[in-house]
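We store chain and fold; example below:
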Amino acid sequence: MKQTAVEWLYERLERMVPRTALYGIDKREYFQQAKAMEKEQMIKAFIDGEHQQGFEGEAELYFNETYNK
C-alpha cells in the first residue's frame, strides 16, 4: 500500500527523536489526529475534483483501499 505524508513523517521522527525526549507526550495520539485530518483533506480533494456531490462513499472507499493497512 502507499504511504501518506503523515506516515512518512512519523516514521522519520520515530528514528530521530528518542521517546524520552518528549517527556511522556504520546506521539501516537498526535499521529492519529494528523492521519484523520489528512484523510478528510484527501476525501474533500477527491470530491472537489469531481465537482459533484454524492461521492463521499467512493472517496472513503478509495482512501481505505489505497492507504489503510
Q: What stands out?
A: The two ends are 7 Å apart (CA to CA). The mean pLDDT is 78.
